[in-house]
Amino acid sequence: MKKRITFNLNGKPVAIDAEGERKLIWVLRVDFGLTGTKYGCGESFCGACTVIVNGYAERSCQLNIQNVQDKDVITIEGLLNGDKLHPLQKAFMDNDALQCGYCTPGMILNAFSFLNKHPDPSIQEIKTGMENNLCRCGAHKRIIEAVQSASKEMKGVH
Ligand code: FES
Ligand code: FES
To answer: Which domain holds residue 71?
Structure first.
């Protein structure tokens, strides 16, 4: 049975009538047209579907929409500040930290959550913090460099 779910999406309150078990990824992509959130494995392995929920990276392919009731959800689209790229988005571009780009939104949002908790990480900490997000194109080295570069830029920026 459908129920009304309300939450904040990229800083704005939204409401949707949905089956409570519907996965967040499909609400974002289909109902709200936020196709930056990517579907990869659908089984919690790859991290392509990562979004931020109440400050933490979550896999939206696993998250029932009823579980985001009254929470704050941020997608890759929500990192933009007007026309201005978030430091992480810019660092990924500047460091050429992508090839096909399919993993990139999830990588950036996982890094966003990681850097909020580790504002001055070592390379090893970045590797550990990012290791559960997969990149089939093998851009990991440049991804690590991008996260390190953004970490310097982001101190005090959230
Ligand atoms: S699509 Fe969600 S973890 Fe792979
Ligand atoms: S850039 Fe292609 S999967 Fe990562």
So the answer is: 2-77
